[in-house]
Design the sequence.
């Protein structure tokens, strides 16, 4: 009995040392990431929130605490309409990307070997060039003297260039969908790839039609990929700056363009910070509300529910 007590007493310090080693290992693993996030995410975000309560004049920005920026941002029809337009563009871009990406992802999951590798290569190939270059390439295609107008006039379908192919909201949709479709396709493809083929075979053997197999088996099991892709595309679309700047023209200005104008053109940094906070809060609120219905937690649990 005495030896057992002695062994237990000797094991306590070693147990503490083991727990201490585990804690220090976690600190060593998470420490650099936490420091990085703190310096490059938390600190700039906190500074942006603080600046949103400041006041900007022709003489510069001063730390005078006030709510005037938020009153103007929430009361001005200009900012409210632009915010609603930005959210609409984000939602429509997400839906179009989903409609185009799901069939591609499903077809890609059905391929094997070299065919799958070749298609994946084709999907990734546009991303070998800069985002700005991929957006800018639509100008010589859709412009008044662009390739599309030249082709339509050459075949006799039109007698003069079509001016509405570019510098409007439709051109923004085209540019955003082209740039962000891969962010929707890959998560859906990875989710479909994980589906056990025996589940589909079992549903078919039990007499389920292809439509019901898709709705009751494939779609629910690929739902985490749909959510992940939709989140990425929506967040990227509502924060887009380059695409509406190049393809949208005056009628295609989005909220990010207005924020940039406050910093770069109007020298109203406090108002730009307030608009940034408003956009972030609105998008976060939408994600929280939609997440309760769509089950965003499935993205982080690989489709498993508690």
Sequence:
């Amino acid at each position: 009995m005495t030896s057992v007590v002695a062994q237990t007493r000797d094991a306590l310090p070693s147990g503490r040392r083991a727990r201490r080693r585990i804690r220090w290992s976690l600190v060593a693993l998470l420490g650099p990431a936490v420091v990085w996030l703190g310096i490059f995410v938390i600190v700039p975000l906190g500074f942006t929130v603080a600046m949103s309560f400041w006041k900007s004049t022709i003489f510069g920005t001063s730390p005078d605490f006030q709510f005037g920026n938020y009153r103007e941002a929430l009361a001005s029809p200009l900012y409210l309409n632009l915010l609603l337009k930005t959210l609409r563009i984000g939602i429509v871009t997400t839906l179009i990307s989903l409609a185009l990406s799901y069939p591609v992802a499903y077809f890609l999951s059905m391929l094997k070997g070299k065919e799958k590798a070749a298609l994946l290569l084709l999907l990734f190939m546009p991303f070998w060039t800069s985002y700005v270059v991929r957006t800018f390439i639509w100008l010589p295609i859709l412009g008044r003297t662009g390739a599309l107008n030249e082709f339509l006039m050459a075949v006799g379908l039109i007698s003069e260039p079509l001016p509405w192919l570019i510098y409007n909201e439709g051109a923004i949709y085209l540019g955003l969908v082209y740039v962000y479709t891969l962010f929707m396709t890959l998560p859906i493809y990875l989710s479909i790839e994980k589906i056990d083929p025996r589940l589909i075979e079992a549903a078919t053997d039990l007499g389920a039609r292809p439509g019901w197999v898709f709705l009751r088996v494939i779609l629910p099991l690929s739902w985490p990929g749909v959510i992940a892709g939709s989140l990425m595309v929506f967040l990227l679309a509502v924060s887009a700056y380059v695409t509406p700047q190049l393809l949208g023209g005056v009628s295609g200005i989005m909220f990010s363009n207005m924020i940039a104008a406050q910093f770069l053109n109007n020298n109203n940094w406090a108002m730009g910070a307030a608009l940034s906070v408003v956009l972030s809060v609105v998008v976060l609120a939408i994600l929280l509300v939609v997440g309760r219905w769509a089950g965003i937690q499935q993205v982080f649990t690989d489709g498993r529910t508690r």
About this structure: The radius of gyration is 26 Å. The chain has two domains: 1-43, 52-301.
